[in-house]
């Protein structure tokens, strides 16, 4: 194999005079021996080594090493293009962008992502002197090239494997769930024997895999509990400092990790704070600013806070039988952006330990539970000791850019009278009287900068969604009745991609978090009219509170709405008792926690960043899958070996991919000068981890590309097009082709032809489109054709409410005619605007219409896609019936002509603004003759379901 020219940053040295970075000491000496160099001096004149001066952390945040995935070594800084490492340290300190010094931390956010619901960030105040950077650190790639086999990789990048193809086969086998016998069988095939592989047995493959660069290593330790157990107790864990460093230096987190606490204000007058990430809350600012409660000095100037997030919960690993449990402990950093940390496919959480699940020998279950709790805290105390030391004295760590930072590790998120502690029954009795579990030595007792009032967060998955099932939904079932509520859920027509409940909800078993969310989407509309108004108002208040609490960003106005929703529940909660929904008091711990949500947002940012959804998913990838790949013996040891091997494969794949992408002499025939293509970090990460992920297609970008003529093979007219608020995508081939009269008969639209004439007439005269039913065009109006192409499905995509640079997943809308499966057809509804552009959703429904799509088509000879819709009259909740007022929902009534026909019209399809979901207004008792297929067609009044998804909720609830 030809020798590869690899990036030289694998070995790094610095000039002791100017601090310039060089690949090795030889280059440093050559630099200092240059007569023109300011560093030229006799060696004995060189001053002794000193601690390097810290760099401006704002400046360092813009610096990326040569291995940065989406940047070149030379970064554009304002109007200046320079190599940062070629600048003397003194010059770096004065680096400016657009004449604004980096040391000035009061910055105006002029280009921050925003949306109609995003509090405008007018001013940002960074904590002065926080998180300073020091030279001399190491990047992920530095570590890759400096291990014991680094020199061998100069000749063969894929050592200990012979070539890239050899490694690809090995990687596939190592990541597969094949047993060693199955791998041996595969390698013994004649076809495989002909391949030039460096291994011929599974054992040889495993031995070579052990030579790969390793991440945090696994350790085991026997634990001897004070009381006997049925099995020996062994703790498997990794060094938490190594795990933190692994996250901190991860190349894919490079642009998504922050270190400086900041205060964000919605205006330059600093009247309203904005909270989203942990570093925007008071907790991070106060930790950086004040003395710790453990009699330590203040955090030193330049210190970096690394917010430790722990999550722990038991999970079942045996299948069908065995009753074997695992207790994983996961670790992450609050410094990583929430939208990155919350994606399971990006592996922002590392498995830190596998905690023992002992079976204590004691006849009383409450004593066994107490002993298990104490052992849990004892194990955490042992595992987390290095983090406690780092929180006390600090530790130097490498950031993703290869700089050193002096880090402190407080615990900021955990998603989990006197008596003798050895007298278990007596101690437990006293502890329970104070609402305690009897653990007298919690693991955080000696963790500096860590306060359980701060790190024990309100966790949305359990405290919001699980509570809604355990309490709100059960109250509704009790008040409305099992049969009635099940029948109503059976009548719902749920949009594509949403959970349906054909058998109702009262008898559901093994309800998941997804089920909790799905039931919340419909419950208020389902029970409205069947329960007392004040009862409905109380349920509505809890729903509003939970939906508001899921916002990614808050200002004081949003916090006021949150508190108002909770106050509204307490004002009406007596109606739940009066209706018989609950027979006793409201001393519910999760309900009590709700009053802490708003203060928690001020101290630690948005609650959704602490949700256990991602860690629950990590149980599958980090524990269950590895456990089921073994032989059902010694689960923990096999999980640790499996994860160690997988992590080595991932790191090696990542390093070789990065190195190959920067090889100036690629051997794959590619064009080394092609620098226009920027790799997708998330896509690359997923390919290396072999993790499935549903990628959100951005139809706005596709529409923009088609409009600019980038794709020459796309059909004309383009099937994907967009307005400023909505993107629409149609299949390349229409589902049907027929005449206008045939379509009018099939879709039961008798006035289709006259409506099409009116639409063309309005377009020709520049008149806004409405759905009044009045016909303006003459019956002699000439149409381009009598034939149309018909689509029965439309994909509609909207921008994220809080960040207009992000898009929501596209929603498929049905516009299907009657069929055997759907005798009355299947038609979805949407918000429309009269003009081609509108201010949706900044003004809510004002100036917009809600209509049901009945036909989507294009007339041959034209470039415009049209839709026949039937309009609803929208009645705001205020001033309407009692059930509408108490539910806060809009009431929709079908617009009808005097002869009983529905009022419809043809509009350009591009006038869609957002899909919406309607639920029939069932009243006190649902009509028993209704079915799932007929409930919408035979109903004349509907609820506009604003709880259908969070986007539509924010559009209808937060906008005027």
Keywords:
960 residues; alpha+beta; 32 helices; ten-stranded antiparallel beta sheet
* Number of helices, counting only DSSP H or I runs of 4 residues or more: 32
- Weakly predicted, low-confidence segments: 1-12, 41-112, 291-297, 664-692
Overall pLDDT = 81
Q: Could you tell me the number of beta strands? A: 37
Instruction: State the helicity in percent bands.
Output: 25-40%
Shape: globular
Span between termini = 68 Å
Rg from alpha-carbon coordinates = 32 Å
* Beta fraction: 15-25%
**Global structural class:** alpha+beta
Major β-sheet, in short?
Answer: 10 strands, antiparallel
**Oligomeric status of the shown chains?**
single chain
How would you summarize what this structure contains?
With 960 residues, the chain is of the alpha+beta class. 33% of the residues lie in helices and 17% in strands. Strand 3 (74-77) and strand 4 form a beta hairpin.
Outline the structure in words:
By secondary structure, the protein is an alpha+beta fold. β31 (849-859) and β32 form a beta hairpin. The radius of gyration is 32 Å and the shape is globular. It starts with 12 loop residues before the first strand and ends with a helix. The model is unreliable at 1-12, 41-112, 291-297 and 664-692 (pLDDT under 50).
């Amino acid at each position: 194999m030809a020798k590869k020219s690899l990036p030289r940053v694998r070995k790094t040295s610095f000039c002791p005079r100017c601090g310039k970075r060089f690949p090795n000491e030889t280059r440093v000496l050559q630099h200092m021996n240059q007569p023109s160099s300011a560093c030229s001096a006799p060696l004995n004149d060189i001053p002794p080594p000193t601690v390097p001066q810290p760099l401006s952390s704002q400046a360092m945040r813009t610096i990326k090493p040569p291995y940065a995935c989406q940047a070149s070594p030379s970064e554009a800084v304002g109007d200046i293009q320079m190599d940062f490492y070629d600048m003397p340290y003194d010059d770096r300190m004065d680096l400016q962008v657009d004449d604004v010094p980096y040391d000035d931390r009061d910055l105006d956010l002029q280009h921050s992502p925003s949306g109609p619901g995003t509090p405008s960030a007018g001013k940002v105040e960074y904590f002065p002197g926080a998180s300073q950077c020091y030279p001399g650190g190491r990047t992920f790639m530095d570590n890759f090239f400096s291990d014991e086999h680094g020199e061998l990789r100069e000749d063969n990048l894929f050592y200990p494997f012979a070539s890239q193809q050899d490694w690809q086969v090995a990687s596939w086998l190592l990541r597969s769930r094949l047993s060693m016998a199955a791998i041996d069988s595969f390698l013994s095939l004649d076809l495989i024997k002909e391949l030039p592989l460096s291994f011929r047995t599974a054992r040889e493959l495993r031995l070579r895999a052990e030579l790969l660069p390793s991440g945090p290593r696994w350790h085991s330790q026997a634990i001897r509990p004070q009381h006997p157990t049925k099995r020996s107790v062994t703790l498997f864990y990794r060094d938490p400092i190594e795990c933190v460093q692994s996250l901190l230096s991860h190349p894919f987190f490079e642009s998504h990790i922050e270190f400086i606490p900041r205060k964000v204000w919605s205006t330059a007058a600093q009247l309203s704070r904005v909270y989203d990430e942990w570093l925007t809350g008071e907790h991070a600012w106060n930790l950086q600013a004040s003395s710790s409660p453990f009699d330590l000095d203040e955090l030193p100037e330049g210190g970096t806070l690394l917010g430790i997030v722990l999550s722990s919960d038991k999970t079942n690993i045996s299948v069908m039988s065995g009753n074997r449990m695992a207790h994983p402990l996961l670790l992450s950093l609050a410094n990583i952006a929430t939208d990155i940390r919350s994606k399971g496919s990006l592996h922002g959480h590392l498995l830190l330990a596998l905690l023992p699940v002992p079976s204590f020998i004691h006849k009383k279950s409450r004593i066994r539970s107490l002993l298990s709790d104490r052992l849990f805290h004892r194990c955490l105390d042992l595992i987390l000791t290095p983090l406690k030391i780092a929180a006390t004295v600090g530790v130097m760590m490498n950031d993703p850019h290869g700089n050193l930072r002096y880090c402190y590790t407080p615990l900021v998120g955990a998603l989990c009278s006197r008596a003798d502690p050895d007298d278990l029954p007596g101690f437990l009795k006293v502890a329970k009287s104070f609402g305690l579990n009897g653990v007298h030595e919690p693991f955080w007792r000696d963790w500096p900068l860590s306060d359980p009032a701060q790190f024990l967060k309100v966790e949305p998955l359990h405290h919001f969604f699980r509570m809604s099932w355990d309490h709100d939904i059960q109250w509704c079932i009790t008040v409305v009745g099992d049969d009635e509520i099940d029948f109503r859920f059976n009548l719902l027509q749920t949009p594509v991609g949403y959970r349906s409940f054909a058998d109702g909800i009262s008898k559901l078993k093994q309800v998941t978090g997804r089920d909790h969310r799905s039931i919340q989407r419909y419950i208020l509309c389902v029970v409205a009219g069947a329960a007392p108004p004040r009862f409905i108002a109380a349920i509505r208040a809890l729903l509003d509170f939970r939906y508001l609490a899921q916002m990614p960003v808050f200002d004081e106005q949003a916090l006021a709405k949150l508190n108002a929703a909770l106050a509204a529940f307490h004002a009406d909660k007596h109606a739940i008792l009066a209706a018989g929904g609950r027979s006793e008091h409201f001393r519910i711990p999760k309900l009590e926690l709700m009053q802490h949500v708003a203060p928690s947002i001020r101290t630690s940012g948005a609650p959704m960043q602490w949700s256990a959804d991602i860690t629950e998913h990590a149980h599958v990838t980090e524990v269950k899958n590895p456990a089921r790949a073994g032989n059902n013996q010694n689960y923990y040891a096999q999980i640790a070996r499996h994860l160690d091997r997988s992590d080595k494969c991932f790191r090696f794949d990542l390093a070789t991919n990065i190195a190959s992408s920067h090889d100036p002499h690629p051997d794959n025939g590619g064009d080394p000068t092609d620098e226009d293509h920027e790799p997708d970090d998330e896509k690359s990460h997923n390919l290396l981890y072999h993790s499935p992920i549903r990628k959100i297609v951005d139809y706005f970008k596709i529409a923009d590309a088609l409009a600019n003529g980038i794709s020459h093979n796309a059909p004309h007219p383009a099937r994907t097009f967009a307005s400023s608020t909505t993107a629409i995508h149609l299949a390349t081939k229409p589902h049907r082709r027929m005449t206008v009269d045939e379509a009018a008969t099939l879709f039961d639209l008798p006035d289709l032809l006259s409506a099409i004439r009116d639409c063309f007439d309005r377009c020709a005269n520049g008149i806004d489109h409405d759905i009044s039913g009045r016909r303006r065009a003459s019956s002699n109006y000439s149409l381009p054709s009598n034939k149309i192409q018909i689509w029965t499905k439309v994909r509609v995509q909207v921008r994220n409410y809080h960040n207009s640079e992000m898009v929501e997943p596209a929603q498929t809308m049905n516009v299907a005619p009657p069929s055997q499966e759907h005798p009355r057809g299947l038609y979805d509804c949407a918000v429309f605007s009269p003009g081609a552009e509108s201010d949706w959703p900044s003004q809510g429904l004002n100036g917009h219409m809600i209509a049901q799509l009945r036909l989507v088509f294009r007339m041959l000879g034209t470039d415009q896609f049209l839709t026949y819709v039937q309009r609803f009259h929208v009645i705001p909740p205020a001033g309407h019936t009692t059930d509408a007022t108490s539910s806060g929902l809009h009431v929709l009534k079908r617009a009808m002509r005097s002869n009983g026909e529905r009022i419809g019209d043809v509009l350009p399809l591009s006038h869609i603004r957002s899909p919406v979901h309607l639920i029939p207004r069932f009243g006190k008792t649902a009509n028993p003759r209704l079915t799932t297929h007929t409930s919408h067609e035979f109903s004349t009044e509907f609820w506009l379901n604003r709880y259908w998804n969070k986007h539509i909720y924010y559009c209808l609830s937060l906008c005027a």
